[in-house]
Amino acid sequence: MKAPDMNQKELRELIEFLKEQDIAEFELERGDVKVRIKRSVAVAPPPETRIVAIPTAAAPGPSVPVAGASTAPSGSREAPPAPPVEDGLHTVHSPIVGTFYESPSPGAPPFVKAGDTVDVGQVLCIVEAMKLMNEIESDVAGEIVKRLVNNGQPVEYGHDLFVIRPKK
Hints:
This protein is mainly beta and 168 residues long. The protein has one helix spanning 8-20; strands spanning 25-30, 33-38, 90-93, 98-101, 117-118, 123-129, 132-137, 142-147, 154-155, 160-166.
């Protein structure tokens, strides 16, 4: 007999319970659903400093972000600062937490590469979240200057994905 899947109400109650009990890491498997929750105390960065969360390992199941908590484990190292973006360049950010894929399937050519010209609405990549493939489209027309993420790399909400030189 198959166990029922978790619904959003149960997840919210679970997250609230973990917050109340000050539990930093939790993992649950129910049927074919696996939930992994990590939270840590967010520290305010000094002005002009950017902290990027780096997951320690990609879990085989979906992750559930906890509102108001960083997904980076305590004591994790910071990513090297992103190179400054030239004036006039546009950065495309991830709209969701998930795994970055440069092509529609393994072995297929990437959607775009540095030097390619893109139009508004053209697919740049896929971010997989909870086994759903979300196509990330360009919000400006122009030339791809650089891809900032490696294929298969986990990305956070707002993570920089591409730098585009907009058409004039």
